[in-house]
Each structure stands twice: as C-alpha cells, then as structure tokens.
Amino acid sequence: MRIVFIIDQVYLHGGIERVLSIKANYFASKPNYEVFIITSEQKDNPFCYEFDKKITFHDLKINYNRKKSYFHPTNLKKLPKHIKRTKSIIKKINPNVVVVCSHSADTYFVPFINKKIPKAKEFHYSKFIEIEKRKNPRSLFKKYFLKFADYVEGKYDRLIVLNPNEVEYYRTNNTIIIPNPLTFYPENVSDVSSKVVISAGRIAPVKGYDILIDIWNKVSPKYPEWELHIYGDGEPVYIDELKKKVKDNNLQDTLIFQGSTDDIQNKMLHSSMYVMTSHNECFPLVLLEAQACGLPIVSFDCPHGPGNIINTDNGILIPHYNNEVFADQLIKLMGDNKKRKELGENARKNSYNYKIDNIMGRWKKMFEELSK
C-alpha cells in the first residue's frame, strides 16, 4: 500500500510534525507499505524529527510567505503552481490514499484533484475557535469562506478528528475519531521528587504562557526553591515580551524559558509536574507524553483536549481562566509528595491506552477501508 502524507514543512518543531513522524515511521517499518511525504516549503532545511530512511520526500518548493494570509495576493499567485505540482507528483506516485496533515493551502484543493484516489484530512486544532466567527462573521468574505470550507470538508473521504467533542462542529458525516499516539513510553518514570514544574509547546499566544507567568507569580513566593521550565520555540518578538514580563515580576531566577529540545522525554523524567494554561486545545500530545513519564498534570479545562485526557485520578483540571484556583492547586501539590506519586502512577496507566500500536491499528483499518 502506498500512502502519501501532505504537510507544509517538517523543519519546525510542532505537534503536527511530531505526530506525522510517528505515523510515517510506523508504516514505513511495515512490510507492503510505501510512505511518501510531500511538502510545499521545506526549503532544504533539515528535518526537525527523525524519519525512516525508507520514506520518500518530495518538496514542491512553493514557499509561501508565512507572515501573510494564504489569500494574500502574494501567496494567491503561487496557488496555480502549487495545484499543478501537487497533482503531478500524486499522479506519478499513484498512491492508495492521500492524507492532508497541516491546515495549509492544499487543504482546499486536494479533494478536487486526482479524484479517483481516496483522501483524508486531519484536524489538529479545535473548531471551537470558529463558533464566534460563524455566529458573527466580520465580513461577507469570512461568512462565505466558512461555507466554502464546509463544502470542501464534505469532499474528503474521511475527516480525522482527535476527540469526541470535535465531531459536533462538523457538518458532514465523514468524521472519524483517532487520537494522537504516544511518541514514547519510557521504561522508567519520574520519581516526582525534583523541585521542577515543566511545560512545553509552541511559544504562541494561544498557549497562554502569559497567564502561566501570572500564576507562577502567585506560586513562587510560597515555594521559592521550585522552578518552572518552559520548552519550545516561537516568534522572537513574542518570546521577548514574555521574558520582559518575567523580569518585571522578578521571576527570572525561577521561571526559565529553555528553548526547544529534542529530548523532552528526559526533561519530563527530571520534573515533578506538568502544567498547561492554553486558551484552547484539541488533543495535546504533550499531556500524554507527560503521563507516560509518570507526571501529574495541572491544566485549565479548556476546549477540548485536556478534559479528554485528564481526570481526577491522574491530574487536576482547573476551571478555565481561574488563576487563583490554579495557583492554589499547584501549591498544594508541591507540598504533597504522596499525592504527586499517586496521580503520577495513575497518569502512567492512562497513557498506556495511547501506545502506538493501539492507535496505529485504527489508522491501518481506515487505510484498508479507503483503499477498497
């Protein structure tokens, strides 16, 4: 079976890229599978994650201006070339199924090319963010674009969503729920004794790191020996803003932006808790990774990911944007080693359900159904 995955790039660290590497490597290692990855703007950059050498890569060299909308004239004029090159390479590969991974320009034209080949689209963000836009579109363009997006989604053979809450946002009957698989399941787990709280991910406003700084400002005076380590990359200007806020609150000795890492597993194993303050999520893989390392999690109950992973046995869900409760629960957990161990052990058990073989079996079944 020949599988094509389409993504914009695989040189920037991110959840979509990480999950793609897991899926692609899994199938590349299996007999009778050929895996191809088509990118539109790799720009000869090295891969951010390890990919099996049997995987064939094709970069279309479209190179959109990522600082502008895909619908900006600068980018729109590149669209015909993108469509032509995508259609050509898919025809050459002649795959059994095509999967669009990232939410980029190809999302909107792939269902209409090489029509005999089954196509699936992954959604790694929560459609919760579209609710207000649909109720009160700011312009006619936005109103009709959302209608167009609904039409396009109906043309895919499958829409893959990450949790049951997301299904209600789609207006078609072609959805299937497949959560993200674990990237690792270490033999050993954290002993939750180090005085380190960890958070990781793309440094972007949606992740709520500014809120996390406010929360840490309440926590740190109670436990000044504890540190908060944040891993990830993002826009330098935004990171500088966050660092300034840290300095303004005199937290620079205990709240540290560590940059990106290729070894988040080791960082988690040497931490005692994981925290998340996102405005919205879909199915945050990083929470499963933290659970696999035996870490208790304290997270906002934002739409919709954390609530599908965390329960009262393995972590603490905080009412969204209630900084006071978040800080209070962190403080209590810092002072209760026994509770941290109990939650961490249960978190580890929960993560087992998302081991790669358990999840990839669902992908395999879907591919087999589509290829028929």
UniProtKB/TrEMBL annotation:
Keyword Ligase belongs to the record: no
Keyword annotations from UniProtKB, A to Z: Glycosyltransferase, Transferase
GO molecular function terms attached to this record: glycosyltransferase activity
Coiled coil: none
Presence of the UniProt keyword Magnesium in the record: no
Enzyme class: transferase
Domain Glycosyl transferase family: 190-349
Protein name: Glycosyltransferase family 4 protein
Species: Aquimarina gracilis
EC number: 2.4.-.-
InterPro entries: Glyco_trans_1
CDD domains, alphabetized: GT4_AmsD-like (cd03820)
